[in-house]
Amino acid sequence: MTHNALSPGIVPGRLQAQDYEENFADLHEPLDDHEALVAADRCYFCHDAPCITACPTDIDIPLFIRQIATGTPEAAAETILGQNILGGMCARVCPTETLCEEVCVREVAEGKPVLIGQLQRYATDTLMAAGKHPFKRAEPTGKRIAVVGAGPAGLSCAHRLAMHGHDVALYDGREKPGGLNEYGIAAYKTVGGFAQAEVDWLLQIGGIKVETGKRLGRELTLDALRDQYDAVFLGVGLGGVNALGLEAEDKDGIADAVDFIAELRQASDLSALPVGRDVVVIGGGMTAVDAAVQSKLLGALNVSLVYRRGRDRMNASVFEQDLAASKGVRIITNATPVAIHGNGAVREVEFEYTDDTLAPTGERFRLPADQLFKAIGQALDAEGLPELDGRKIAVTGAGRTSVDRVWAGGDCAAGGDDLTVTAVAEGRDAAEDIHASLVS
Prior knowledge:
Layout: H1 17-23, H2 33-40, H3 50-54, H4 61-69, H5 73-83, H6 87-93, H7 105-110, H8 116-129, E1 144-148, H9 152-163, E2 167-172, H10 180-183, H11 194-202, E3 208-212, H12 222-228, E4 231-234, E5 240-241, E6 254-256, H13 257-266, E7 278-282, H14 286-297, E8 302-306, H15 318-326, E9 330-332, E10 335-341, E11 348-354, E12 360-368, E13 371-374, E14 378-379, E15 388-389, E16 392-393, E17 406-408, H16 420-439
Parallel strand pairs: 1-2, 1-4, 2-3, 4-17, 6-13, 7-8, 7-13, 8-9
Antiparallel strand pairs: 5-14, 10-11, 11-12, 15-16
């Protein structure tokens, strides 16, 4: 993201030093041993547990909670990580309120679910803090697989392939592995450098060589990878950002929300990160909420999140919407941008109210803005890909594409719901399918 002298309202250091530390502290304090036992004791250990069905990675949730309740959190972590190797990150960022916890029997009966996400974090953090990696590589197979994209899908795929004894080359276009876990999630959800710590822990399995700064369509081509490797997995995510389609979209002070979040995540000093006085975020998903909340936490005076549909259609969960509101973000729904005003730099954004069919109502309003973030979805940004289904890679079964010996998963593949936990499941399942095809 670039900051320009023509945007005088975008400045660093809006807060006192201690405010940044407080504002970007852990969203949920981790459970201590006693709190974990108390939380685990609330689980009914259902036989046909609905929480397992609601988990995209099919973790045996009653089993791992029982293991915590009996004082064996490391065993609980193995139960979790056997299904979801990024269980530590997912415990922090999964929308558990709309997945496992929403269907918890305690939630249905009492309105207060078992703290499944926080218990998962307790277990996985305990194991990682002990420096243990409970998985071992099988005997080497001599097979070599290229995994392109070191985000959740690619990391999950690479780890499972390495477990089966294959050699994996893990490529990523950025300077660090981790994908959205490293660059795309609000800083208060994953504090203390956890994303890289989890990657380092995952790589302890061995057999995975990470090569950063290599991107498909730039340094890599699919044809060359197919020539060099026995199989290829594409977990390239969505690198492009959709445009608003308005004139003056190139004015100073306008940026992509994903770039803003990435810059914030990599900043060593948050007080040096410029932010506007009046910030407008356009979008209704997790990225929009993360950008809006973090703008407020950086000291923006007024932050408005504007979405073209109603609240019930926002991709961000009710929990995330409520979090934004609690931090002082104003959420405006059923409004779409129609014009950007300003001389050189953005000064106002004009919107028109829409009805439930997105038809314009004729009623317009303007919001002052010295900084505007676009968060209206991302698009596939790579060349030489397999056949597409709409705007994503078409897949069948466990991620098989139209090209022989090429699989895909995560946000770049059709059919998913763009969640970290779903990407992990797709990477894992593709790895099992790749393994089966290579040893058959």
